[in-house]
Amino acid sequence: MGRQEPEESESKSAGREGAAPIHVTDDEFEEKVLRSPVPVIVDFWAPWCMPCRMIAPALEQLAAEYAGRMIVAKVNTDENPRWAIQFGVQGIPTLLFVKDGQVVDRIVGAVPIGHIRQRLEAMLN
Fold first, then answer.
1. CA 103/CA 91 separation, integer angstroms
2. How far, in Å, CA of 37 to CA of 88, rounded?
3. 52-67: per-residue pLDDT in tens?
4. Could you give the C-alpha distances from 17 to 46, 77, 117, 121, in angstroms and in order?
């Protein structure tokens, strides 16, 4: 039984990763975003940004709804600026829609969940 418990924990942990946004550092970005086997919405944000806080619940909801089909990756631009600079992020929140390592769409600013969902569906199809 000792062997089954860690396996169950690992599978639950993996399931949670897809069900909730993950926090990604500059060093992890290439592996977790650009090499992701599923599409990714990257949320470039900062703790002091009120519009970023406004869209956070929508991104959490979408991460749960689309678990297994896509990932929401959050990048704190104050602590991890490299990829924000590389992708020309000039304002936050900025959402990048990444599929097969390529940016296929971008949203700048806080928008309603329906708008994000529409763009997500377009990326998934």
1. 17
2. 24
3. 999 999 999 999 999 9
4. 21, 21, 19, 20
- Contact of 82 with 31, CB cutoff 8 Å: no
Which residue type sits at 68? G
* pTM score: 0.84
Map residue 116 onto helix, strand or coil: helix
| Matching residue, tokens 């086997």 | 37
Task: Considering the candidates 52, 62, 98, 110, report the single residue annotated as catalytic.
Answer: 52
pLDDT in tens, 16-41: 444 899 999 999 999 999 999 999 99
52 catalytic per annotation:
yes
Higher pLDDT, 46 or 8: 46
Q: Is position 29 annotated as part of the catalytic site?
A: no
Domains of the chain in sequence order: 4-124 (3.40.30.10)
What are the backbone angles phi and psi of residue 97, rounded to the nearest 5°?
A: -100, 115
DSSP state of 72: E
